[in-house]
# Entry
Amino acid sequence: MAAVHITDNFDALKDIFSKRVDSTDSKLRKILVQVGHCSKSVGAEEIFQFFDEHANESDLVSIAGCDGACFNAP
# Structure
């Protein structure tokens, strides 16, 4: 199995988010990014920053606390 790098996941999220933001759907979106000690090591802060900078004014972008799934981080 080939290793997946965090930037691959980030690029995929960026593409999905960009398409949704560019769509005509103006419904409020709530975007939660889990930022804890372990997720910081795999780029969670950068992902939050991207969403925060590129979201529509009507979107709510928030940081969520640790979900206890460190074992599943990429």
